[in-house]
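Hi C.,

You asked whether I'd gotten around to modeling the 182-residue construct. I have! Everything is below, sequence then structure, no commentary in between.
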Amino acid sequence: MTRIQPLTVETASQDGAQILSAIKGKIGMVPNLYASMAHSPAALNAALAFGDAMGNSILSPAVKEQLALVIAGANSCDYCASAHTAIGKGAGVAADELARNLVGEATDPKVQALLTLAKTIVSNRGSISDSDLSTARSAGVTEGEIVEVVASVAINTFTNYFNHIAETEIDFPVVRTGAAVS
């Protein structure tokens, strides 16, 4: 049962309503994550601004979704697993690849290195070894990509934890972190 109720344009504060209207205008819907986060327009704006800034990432949209999936899997966030599977399909990633990504596996060696790095960062709460970095670099991961993996872990962990606390109702085709993507 949802613990933080999603707001609507009609029930949100004036600032929250403006943000929710902008989201709906941009993507055609207001995901429950954002509708629930609208209780704090400042937090919602921060999450959106972080995402917008990462829109200029050196990582491709597909890779960012693959990273979001491994992070959702590591944090057991079914909402984000569901959302990022749907978005990942839209970014051109095959369903079977998305299923692998959710558990930290990829067919492409460089994507595998990025996913492994992200999963290690999550599992070790940001403390990784020189060997972990060396392994990523040996697979062709650049310094900028390492920075962006850390950024992806930060924003996705924020939304994963928010969804755990809010028990956000999933409004995408449901994907469970303990199950394969169909």
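If it helps when you're writing up: The chain has a mean pLDDT of 96.

Thanks,
B.
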